[in-house]
């Protein structure tokens, strides 16, 4: 019957005595489920009975050779290196109860590595060897940036078992955790969790996650080490295979300490990640005892050390360390998501703290800069964490104080905007701002504003009196465009300047001014000073100045823009007409966005109806292609995507009424600067009528050929220009050319001076000869030319 780790310890006085030599909570302890205990760190290995026979002697163990491990020449530190040396040990990097880690030089590839060597006193212990091999093979099976890469597993000439791995120039996380910020430590923990998440995908548990087993490199590397307790899950015990349980009591999950085999799984490692987070937040691991046995008992009871620290991070750690595995985070991803959400919210909190400082400084400073910085920081904080109530309240208070500053500086519009944004648009402060703004508007001289408008406006501007339309002022742009001198138009009714091409448009413009007191972008045609018509956008507004209503009018010349728009409109119309006449539909396919655009003619060709939401996709179009033609078209399109080559395929397309139409599909791929196909544009042309006509002509030609062959005479069917359409077998035999060759390349040439179109109607005899590439020197002879029912086809018969 299997016993728990604690029961095994308590039942053996010798083990208890040996454990008194160990640190109370930081050592790694393991126990086989059959009761065998060991501590693979600084203490003598404790074991009740070996699981494999121990061999004597100093030569390599046959048991190792059976594993087919390579033998390597290893020189110890201070020992002279030889040409046959594979690894030269330079110095010790660290030591534990089962192995020593050395800095070494691997001669074959001339690189610095770390070599982990099984201790001499354990090198003949098959159980220790098996565990060492298991650790090495576990590391070797894991290919992840946060797991130390194993280079080679071998044994030395004296039988010492070792493996080489990537050397990390750095330190353990445990040595520097207290020096790092919370944000830095969180980033390290998330990367350690990445390694565990990867291991879980390989159905492996680490079981001994702690800061001492995390290496931090000088260049930002984070590597999880010491996979000696790694275990495949679900744990299955068969025959004499009894996997060990255990870990470091200070971090150990209850099921590890209690030896509850069926409860060991991914949530066990998640507990350990939570324990590391607990230490990161509080400064100490979760379990403690005055002796190692007390610490193991605390782990089995899940007795968490008390702390005054509170907060979201501690809550995450405690959730990960729930006694019941089902109450913990169920996956490493869930644990990581909780950390990332915390980090995200902490960023929002930090932004709020910075905003508070700037908001406080703004009260002592002048201007708006500090308020603007504070509001920008608060905007970022709320973008990261929209529910941050502290940020929401501080943002409102800052906006109100910002509006007070703007009010004191006479910037009433800004002050009012801030109050409206803060939700205080109807407050007493907002009413005070409006009153002051209204008072200042009446104090400001309109003429000064109009003068500034004239000085800086890039467009022609004219000012007229609103009641009678007489010109008051005009800027240089207006005078230049319309060819006036200012003294000649002042106090002249603007209607008398005859600027409007269409009087009705002027009436419409005046009606809008009368009803709305303003006009924006009114489009009209005006006569310029060069006696040419220009297209213009007119914007006008009635303003009050010294108890007088003035109409300020801005004229923008858009002649070039209108010309371009009209030309574009005509081009588009011509293109639509062309595609309609050619029965040519066009389409564009964005490869990355997987979006297809059709023109209206393509809908007409396919018989599909446009969708207000989107055009049909490629698959929808493919379904309408005849099943026999679909693979060919699909292959051509796939090849275009892959190679960038254009394609042209004739296929049959089914319209909604079930009828098939013959189309030619063409596509032209477009590549980006990297040579990748990013877009394909193409056409679909309906050639059903041409195809039908071609098939009709081919059928007619075939029928004509059969009729001529049936006659048994030497006959030719010729076209209106003498081209041979058909030839009887007798005629072909007399010329020693096949009928098919005559039909493809043959020509009946008339006597000099006579064209085929000159032949009168009816039967007649003419001098002619048959020309063919294979008969360049044929003789002239008399042919009887006879009409047929078709004006473009005649029968020619040699006169014997």
TrEMBL record:
Keyword vocabulary terms for this entry: ATP-binding, Kinase, Nucleotide-binding, Transferase
Keyword Nucleus part of the UniProt annotation: no
Annotated ranges, domain Protein kinase: 87-340
Basic and acidic residues bias spans: 64-80
Residues reported in the UniProt entry to bind ATP: 116
EC number, UniProt record: 2.7.11.1
Root EC class: transferase
Residue ranges annotated for the PAC domain, each copy included: 645-699
Region Disordered, residue ranges: 50-80
Highest taxon listed in the record's lineage: Bacteria
Residue ranges occupied by any PAS domain in the UniProt entry: 446-491, 571-644
One example GO MF annotation: ATP binding
Protein name per UniProt: Serine/threonine-protein kinase PknD
Species of provenance: Roseimaritima multifibrata
Taxon lineage: Bacteria, Pseudomonadati, Planctomycetota, Planctomycetia, Pirellulales
């Amino acid at each position: 019957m299997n016993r728990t780790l604690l029961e095994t310890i308590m039942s053996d006085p010798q083990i208890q005595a040996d454990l008194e030599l160990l640190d109370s909570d930081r050592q790694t302890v393991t126990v086989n489920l059959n009761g065998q205990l060991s501590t693979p760190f600084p203490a003598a290995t404790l074991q009740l009975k070996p699981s494999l026979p121990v061999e004597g002697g100093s030569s390599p163990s046959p048991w190792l050779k059976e594993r087919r491990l390579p033998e390597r020449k290893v020189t110890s530190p201070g020992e002279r290196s030889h040409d046959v040396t594979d690894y030269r040990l330079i110095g010790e990097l660290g030591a534990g109860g089962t192995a020593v880690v050395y800095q070494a030089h691997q001669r074959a590839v001339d690189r610095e590595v770390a070599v982990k060597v099984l201790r001499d006193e354990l090198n003949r212990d098959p159980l220790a060897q098996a565990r060492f091999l298991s650790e090495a093979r576990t590391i070797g099976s894991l290919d992840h940036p946060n797991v130390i890469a194993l280079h080679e597993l071998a044994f030395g000439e004296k039988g010492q078992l070792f493996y080489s791995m990537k050397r990390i120039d750095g330190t353990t996380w445990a040595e520097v955790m207290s020096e790092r910020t919370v944000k830095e430590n969180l980033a390290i923990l998330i990367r350690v969790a990445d390694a565990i998440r990867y291991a879980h995908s390989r159905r492996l548990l680490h079981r001994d996650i702690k800061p001492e087993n995390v290496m931090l490199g000088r260049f930002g590397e984070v590597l999880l080490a010491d996979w000696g307790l790694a275990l495949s899950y679900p744990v299955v015990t068969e025959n004499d295979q009894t996997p060990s349980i255990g870990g470091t009591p200070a971090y150990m999950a209850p099921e590890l300490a209690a030896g509850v085999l069926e409860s060991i799984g991914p949530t066990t490692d998640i507990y350990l990640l939570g324990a590391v987070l607990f230490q990161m937040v509080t400064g100490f691991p979760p379990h403690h005892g005055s002796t190692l046995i007390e610490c193991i008992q605390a782990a089995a009871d899940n007795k968490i050390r008390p702390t005054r620290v509170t907060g979201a991070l501690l809550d995450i750690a405690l959730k990960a360390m729930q006694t019941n595995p089902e109450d913990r985070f169920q996956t490493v991803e869930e644990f990581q998501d909780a950390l990332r959400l915390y980090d995200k919210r902490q960023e929002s909190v930090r932004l709020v703290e910075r905003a508070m400082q700037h908001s406080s400084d703004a009260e002592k400073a002048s201007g708006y800069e500090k308020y603007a910085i504070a509001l920008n920081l608060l905007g970022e904080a709320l973008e990261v964490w929209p529910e941050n109530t502290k940020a929401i309240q501080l943002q409102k208070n800052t906006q109100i104080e910002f509006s007070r500053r703007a009010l004191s500086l006479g910037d009433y519009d800004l002050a009012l905007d801030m109050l409206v944004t803060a939700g205080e648009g109807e407050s007493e402060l907002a009413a005070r701002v409006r009153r002051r703004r209204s008072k200042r508007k009446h104090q400001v001289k309109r003429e000064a504003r109009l003068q500034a408008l004239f000085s800086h406006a890039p467009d022609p501007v004219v000012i007229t009196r609103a009641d009678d339309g007489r010109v008051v002022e005009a800027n240089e742009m207006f005078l230049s465009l319309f060819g006036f001198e200012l003294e000649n138009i002042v106090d002249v009714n603007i209607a008398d300047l005859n600027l409007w091409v269409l009087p009705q448009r002027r009436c419409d413009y005046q009606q809008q001014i009368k009803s709305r007191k303003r006009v924006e972008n009114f489009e009209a045609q005006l006569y310029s000073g060069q006696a040419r018509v220009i297209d213009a956008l007119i914007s006008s507004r009635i303003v009050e100045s010294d108890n007088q209503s003035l109409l300020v009018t801005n004229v923008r010349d858009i002649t070039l823009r209108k010309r371009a728009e009209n030309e574009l409109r005509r081009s588009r119309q011509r293109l639509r007409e062309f595609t309609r006449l050619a029965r040519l539909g066009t389409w564009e396919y964005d490869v990355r966005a997987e979006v297809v655009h059709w023109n209206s003619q393509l809908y007409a060709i396919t018989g599909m109806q446009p969708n207000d939401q989107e055009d049909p996709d490629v698959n929808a179009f493919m379904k309408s292609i005849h099943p026999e033609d679909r693979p060919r078209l699909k292959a051509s399109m796939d090849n275009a995507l892959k190679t960038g080559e254009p394609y042209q395929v004739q296929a049959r397309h089914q319209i909604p009424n079930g009828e098939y139409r013959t189309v030619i599909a063409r596509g032209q791929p477009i590549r980006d600067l990297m040579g990748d196909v990013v877009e394909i544009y193409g056409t679909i042309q309906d050639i059903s009528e041409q195809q039908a006509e071609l098939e009709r002509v081919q059928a007619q030609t075939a029928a004509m050929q059969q009729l001529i062959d049936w006659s048994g005479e030497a006959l030719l069917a010729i076209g209106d220009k003498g081209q041979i359409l058909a030839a009887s077998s007798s005629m072909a035999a007399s010329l020693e050319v096949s009928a098919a060759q005559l039909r493809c390349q043959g020509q009946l040439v008339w006597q000099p001076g006579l064209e085929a179109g000159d032949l009168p109607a009816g039967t007649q005899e003419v001098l002619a000869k048959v020309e063919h590439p294979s008969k360049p020197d044929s003789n002239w002879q008399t042919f009887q030319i006879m009409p047929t029912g078709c004006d473009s086809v005649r029968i020619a018969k040699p006169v014997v």
